[in-house]
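#structure-requests
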Amino acid sequence: MNKPLLLLSLFAFIILSACNTVRSPENEAKIITVSILPQKTILEHIAGDKFQVNVLIPEEGNHETYEPTARQMAETGKSIAYFKLGHLDFEVNWLDKLVQNYPDMKVVNTANRLDLIVGEEIVHGDHVHAGGVDPHIWLSVSTVRVQAENMTKGLIELDPENTSFFEANLTRFAASLDSLDQQIREILATSETRSFMIYHPSLGYFARDYDLEQIAIEQEGKEPSPAYMKQLIDIAAEKNIGTIFVSSQFNKQSALTIAGQINAKVEEFNPISPDWHNNMLSIARQIAGSSR
């Protein structure tokens, strides 16, 4: 992030924070903030009507590079808790500052106990995934199952009187995950390939769940070099890849270039769609139909 802009944002955040230090318990004590829309969908399955869920990143926002406004940060400070994903860049950049201004706001890490995909430090242009952790933990049934358990634990700590309510909702949600997992497996069983090509590697956990190979166009978070582009074209031809996937929030020019070379199509998908359940099925169908 540009340093002058960072300082300006921090200054505005401090001013707005000062204007919002008086909290109204009856109106604000039941607000939980999350980072992205799929989290809201999942959390609401468990929280029901016991909490209001606020989301920081809008659907059209790039979840890798989004920078919340000072007003958003100040509004988030009204929350009783923040349920974080744990490794998104904007959480790394901003959450500590938010907690410093609102020390009473509980932070729940929904990535606890997850078997995270970790590689070398990943540089994405002007930002870095610390430790090379793949942050896309909401794009997998197995990781969402653990996140839901972490959310339930957090909700119970916030509202122990409704423990049985939250646990019953978790049981129902877990059953729906079993059904979703089976549906995805049946869809992928029809696929003629176990490999798919994608611009930004956001489906690593999905690929791990279903023994798929994710081939990323991005090279260490950057546009691919000419040499790597040639290599990708050869890989796509070898593996009979007929579709290249790109997140709707990302530039698709490199994907279009490769697609033109191998006579493939480019398909967009929205990784932060609020309709999480159907989005997971849609991703499975797209992958199943991605071969020639």
